[in-house]
Amino acid sequence: MNNNELSWDSFIAMGYGEKKVYKKKEILFHPGEIGKGFYYLLAGEVKISVISREGHERDIDYVTPGELIGVQGMQNEPYTYTAKATISSTVYFFSNLMFNQLCAKLPEAASVRTNSLIMKVRLLAESINILTAPAEYRLAHFLYGLYLKKEDPKIKISRTSLGHFIGTSRITVYKIIRQLEQDGLIEINKGYIYLLDINKLKTFLESSLQPSHQACHTKN
Length: 220
Fold this sequence. Notes:
It comes from Neobacillus bataviensis LMG 21833. Keywords: Activator, DNA-binding, Transcription, Transcription regulation. This is Putative transcriptional regulator. GO terms for molecular function: DNA binding; DNA-binding transcription factor activity. InterPro entries: cNMP-bd_dom, cNMP-bd_dom_sf, Env_Response_Regulators, HTH_CRP, RmlC-like_jellyroll, WH-like_DNA-bd_sf, WH_DNA-bd_sf. By secondary structure, this protein is α+β, with helices and mostly antiparallel strands. The protein has 2 domains: about 10-115, Sandwich (Jelly Rolls); about 125-210, Winged helix-like DNA-binding domain superfamily/Winged helix DNA-binding domain (Arc Repressor Mutant, subunit A), CATH 1.10.10.10. About 40% of the residues lie in helices and about 25% in strands. It has 7 helices and 11 strands. It has helices at about 10-15, 95-105, 110-130, 135-150, 160-165, 170-180, 200-210; strands spanning about 20, 25-30, 35-45, 45-50, 55-65, 70, 80-85, 90-95, 155, 185-190, 190-195. The strands form 3 sheets. A 4-stranded antiparallel beta sheet has the order 1-8-3-6. It has a 4-stranded antiparallel beta sheet with strand order 2-7-4-5. Strand 4 and strand 5 (about 55-65) form a beta hairpin. Helix 4 (about 135-150) crosses helix 6 (about 170-180), helix 4 (about 135-150) packs across helix 7 and helix 5 (about 160-165) packs across helix 6 (about 170-180). The longest helix has 21 residues, at about 110-130.
């Protein structure tokens, strides 16, 4: 099989990976649990969250189909975060033993995993870089990131979840959403957030952190 044709879906088709189905709000693993492998999300959505020093839950990522979950388990290390399904989700668990067997048969499989890890590291680095950015920038960045992952301008997410992700209150989220609506960037309708102008949203993100940007930032 050509290396360009290899993917997690092809490994699953070959019989590798243990299929697991999680219901909405069901937890894949808790912090402190020793990992013995990693997960590949085939369908659904999984929320990644941590507990801050102040004891508050903070959502740091929403994993979408095609991504890996629990990569700390590759080194048999304890997980440092909680992974919870936000909707009914199907994952495939690759134990370290199973993946080693796969690599013995198809050495190219190691490259597929490496490429997936590189992507996750890039996303993590990007998330860390915006931790000190204004709250409205973090929220817009999060929405834009979800759009890129899902390739859909229609996003289903609660204000509570948005608050958890950007680390601020629901009141602040409400104020930011109102401002983004007034700016013509988004629209709220029946529990969904619609991104009205992707190019305008991208321009907003590119200009918001420039020193010359004069927009009034929402207080955290």
